[in-house]
Each structure stands twice: as structure tokens, then as C-alpha cells.
Specification:
The protein is an alpha/beta fold and 365 residues long. The protein folds into 2 domains: 169 residues, 3-Layer(aba) Sandwich (Rossmann fold), CATH 3.40.50.1970; 183 residues, Dehydroquinate synthase-like, alpha domain (Up-down Bundle), CATH 1.20.1090.10. The strands form 3 sheets. A 6-stranded parallel beta sheet has the order 1-8-5-4-2-3, sandwiched between helices. Strands 6-7 form a two-stranded antiparallel ribbon. A two-stranded parallel sheet has the order 9-10. β4, α6 and β5 form a beta-alpha-beta unit. The protein is globular. The relative contact order is 0.12. It binds fe (ii) ion (FE2).
């Protein structure tokens, strides 16, 4: 068994300004990586800028990270920052900018390599620049995971890069979540739910990973109540953020499994948000797993049956409609994703995967 959690994580009000001393230790030149707008709106970018100014750190801002960032997006960010020569990278936002910041940090440390480095760990390369993460949504867990998931346009899907880059420092503050639209809070919280379920029902499950999944799954009813509340408090947002980080710690040890593997085609081809796409397959994944895992997970989630869970989840994320011709190619893509198939602790043959599709919150047009 192995346990590793190298990120120093603070979740508290004003976390960024409270920990300026920690930030100062990373050097005098920072590249900030954000999405297009939200970090400006929710105050996270100005908190980071004010803190960097107060400690005399120079910085530049790359604010063109797309949702589900592509390999091209990473190379564009490196091109933008290379002459500035930053000592470290600060990712601010949801999963997209945080994942991108890790890949950008790797490419900046290795300016002589092209995109081939992103998916090849056998080359003679330098380790990534240090990364600091400031999460502003509540699902990805990227602030505590070593993962960076990128869109591959040539393969028409998404994939995790094989380099494992843990952020060295993550600073979470519930106040940023209060600016996120309802649907983003729901979708990202369902992503975190997926991380718990897929980490628990996983071939790499250990006693350590179960510490996180058992705690997290048992908090689902609290999370659901918060998601359905019209007026949320600061403590509610902090709970959502904390749960998402616990889920990140779980998948740092196991990775994800079939629902994530199946979700990538929906996101790439139909633009379905990541959390919703993952949630589409969660009840069916539990239903098709072995009896022990199925009853454990349902009990922790406080449901009597997969049908009850499915109907609750449908109320939050709805159903997704796809064309029948797409279904066949998505099946094929899933059956060729060896990494995700291997992570499944029960037999994941064509029949089982097909049963998960049929039981899912997908409607075939
Ligand atoms: Fe995810």
C-alpha cells in the first residue's frame, strides 16, 4: 500500500492573503493561469494579484485557458510566458485552469520539447515548475491531485497526461464559490461524487483510499441539501469545497474508473459539462458492480436502491440525449481505454459496459 499527499492545503476565509509568506517562498516571478472571466468576477484573481504586489512579486496573467483545455492551449500559454521566465505557476479557477497550470509548468521547465513531452515520461526532461492552486469550484479536486486532463483534438477525446504533478500549495476559500452559477455548483459537486464512487469501487482501492471515500460518500446527503438550498452560507460553500478536496485525495490514490472513461465522449462531442457527463453513468456503475461494493456504497450514500439514487441524481443533472450512431462509436472508444477498464474491480467486458450504458441517464434519440 502507498499513501502520498504532498500538497500543503489550506481551506479557510482569506486563505490567499493569510498565506502570503508561503507564496513568497516560491520566488519573485509568477505566471498566473486563469479561465477567460470567472476569476476576475469572483475576486480570486484580485486577491492573488494584491497578495503578489504586497510581497513584491512580479507576475503576468494568462487568461485564455479554455474549458477542457487542449494540448494547443498549453503550448499557447508557454509561448506567452516563456520570455517572462517565471519561477512558478499559480492556477486559479475550476478544473480547467488548475489542470492546465500543471501541464504549463511542465512545458515551461522544458522549453526545448514540443507537445510530445506531455504524453511521454521516457524522455530526459526536467521536473515541472512548482504549482500553486486556488480552486473556485467544488468538484475537480485538482488542487490536491497530481492529474492534468487535456483535450486531444486528434483523438477527439480527453486524457490524463502520464506526468504526475502535485501542486505544492493550494489555497481554498469558500467565498469564491458564492459567485458560481447554480448549475456549475451542481455539476462540479456531482463530479466530486463521481470521484468518491469510482475511487471506492476501484481495483486500486486501499484502506487509505477508503478513509476518504467512506467519509465523502457519507456526506452526500448534506451536500445534496446544500445544493438544493436557495440561500447558501459561507459554511455551506466551505463544506462543498472541503468535500471536493477530500474526493481529490481519494482519486489521487486510485484514479477514476468507467464513468469518467465513458464521460469523455459526451463532453468532447456534445459539450456536456464534465460533472454532468460523469453523473450520467454513476447509478448504473454502482448497479453493475459486485454485491459487496454495491451495498456498501448505497448504504454510505443513504439510499435503499440504485433506482432511488438514480432518480435523485436525475433531478439534479437531468438526462442526456445522444444519437444511436454515436452510441456505437462511444462503446468502441470505451472498450479501447485500457487504463479505465483495468481500474474497474469487476469484469468490465462488452456486456457489462453495454449494460452500464443501457442503465444510465442517457436517452438514445
Ligand atoms: Fe472528474
Amino acid at each position: 500500500m502507498f499513501f502520498n499527499m504532498t500538497t500543503k492545503l489550506y481551506i479557510e476565509k482569506d486563505a490567499v492573503s493569510n498565506h502570503k509568506k508561503d507564496i513568497e517562498g516560491f520566488g519573485k516571478k509568477a505566471l498566473i493561469v486563469t479561465g477567460h472571466n470567472s476569476s476576475r468576477i469572483n475576486g480570486s484573481l484580485s486577491d492573488v494579484e494584491n497578495t503578489l504586489q504586497s510581497i513584491g512579486t512580479e507576475y503576468i496573467v494568462y487568461n485564455k485557458t479554455d474549458e477542457n483545455p487542449s494540448v494547443e492551449n498549453i503550448l499557447d500559454a508557454r509561448e506567452f510566458a516563456l520570455s517572462f521566465d517565471p519561477e512558478y505557476v499559480i492556477g486559479i479557477g475550476g478544473g480547467s485552469p488548475l489542470d492546465a497550470s500543471k501541464a504549463i509548468a511542465l512545458m515551461l521547465a522544458n522549453p526545448s520539447f514540443g507537445k510530445e513531452l506531455l504524453f511521454d515520461t521516457s524522455l530526459n526532461y526536467k521536473k515541472a515548475l512548482p504549482v500553486i492552486c486556488v480552486p473556485t469550484t467544488c468538484g475537480t479536486g485538482s488542487e490536491v491531485t497530481p492529474y492534468s486532463i487535456l483535450t486531444l483534438h486528434d483523438k477527439q477525446t480527453k486524457s490524463s497526461i502520464p506526468h504526475h504533478i502535485f501542486p505544492e500549495l493550494s489555497l481554498g476559500d469558500g467565498k469564491y464559490l458564492s459567485y458560481a452559477p447554480e448549475n456549475i455548483l451542481i455539476n462540479t459537486a456531482v463530479d466530486a461524487l463521481g470521484h468518491f464512487i469510482e475511487s471506492h469501487i476501484n481495483a486500486k482501492q486501499t484502506s487509505f483510499s477508503c478513509l476518504f471515500t467512506e467519509k465523502g460518500l457519507s456526506m452526500w446527503q448534506t451536500v445534496k441539501t446544500i445544493l438544493l438550498k436557495k440561500e447558501k452560507t459561507y459554511d455551506d460553500y466551505e463544506t462543498l469545497l472541503t468535500v471536493s478536496s477530500i474526493a481529490g485525495m481519494a482519486i489521487s490514490h486510485t484514479g477514476t474508473s468507467l464513468p469518467h472513461g465513458m464521460s469523455y465522449s459526451l463532453t468532447y462531442n456534445y459539450g456536456i459539462p464534465h460533472g454532468k457527463a460523469v453523473g450520467t453513468f454513476l447509478p448504473a456503475y454502482i448497479n453493475n458492480s459486485d454485491a459487496k461494493n454495491k451495498s456498501q456504497v448505497l448504504k454510505l450514500l443513504a439510499y435503499n436502491s440504485c433506482e432511488e439514487f438514480s432518480s435523485d441524481l436525475e433531478k439534479l443533472i437531468g438526462r442526456t440525449v445522444i444519437k444511436e450512431c454515436d452510441y456505437n462509436s462511444y462503446m468502441e472508444a470505451m472498450m479501447s481505454n485500457e487504463r479505465k477498464l483495468k481500474s474497474c474491480p469487476f469484469t468490465a467486458d462488452k456486456n457489462t459496459v453495454s449494460a452500464i450504458y443501457k442503465d444510465s441517464l442517457l436517452s438514445i434519440d
